[in-house]
Design brief:
The protein starts with a strand and ends in a 14-residue tail after the last helix. Strand 1, helix 1 and strand 2 form a beta-alpha-beta unit. About 40% of the residues lie in helices and about 20% in strands. The C terminus is likely disordered. It contains 5 helices and 5 strands, in the order E-H-E-H-E-H-E-H-E-H. The relative contact order is 0.19. Strands 2-1-3-4-5 form a 5-stranded parallel beta sheet, with helices on both faces. The chain is an alpha/beta fold.
């Protein structure tokens, strides 16, 4: 089962994303945390994917990204989420610094996240037999 860690201080967004992933990608196991400092203990090298909010009080997503990489998480398994525009995000996180940077409020970005989650689910042992509702459900 693919293991995903979601870190975001916006509890409403965090809950929405958690429910979305659990409903749409049942072959994935979701862990959530709304306090970036407390989340550090959950960052281990066995994570299949991390989604991290860029702007959080106490510890921003860029620092969480650096910490995760230092703990052995592959940078290509980390996505930075933000409400900032794409130009800002790509300047702050150049290609190769993480898997992706996504604007969490832009609908087109959801398609990118869906592709990543779908690929992860297919690769996970449980994902091979997982039933997913048809598109548009």
């Amino acid at each position: 089962m693919g293991k995903i860690l979601l870190i975001d201080d916006d509890t409403a967004f965090l809950k929405l994303l958690e429910e979305y992933v659990e409903e749409r990608f049942p072959g994935l196991h979701v862990l959530t945390c709304n306090d970036p400092i407390k989340c550090l203990a959950s960052i281990t090298d066995d994570l299949d994917l991390m989604l991290v909010d860029l702007e959080m009080p106490g510890l921003d997503g860029a620092k969480v990204l650096s910490y995760a990489i230092s703990k052995g998480v592959d940078k290509n398994r980390i996505i930075i989420l933000s409400g900032r525009d794409a130009d800002y995000l790509h300047e702050r996180f150049p290609m190769g610094s993480c898997l992706a940077v996504l604007n969490k409020y832009e609908g087109r970005q959801k398609k990118v996240l869906d592709m990543i989650l779908s690929a992860l689910e297919r690769k996970s042992p449980a994902g091979e037999n997982a039933c997913r509702p048809p598109s548009g459900s």
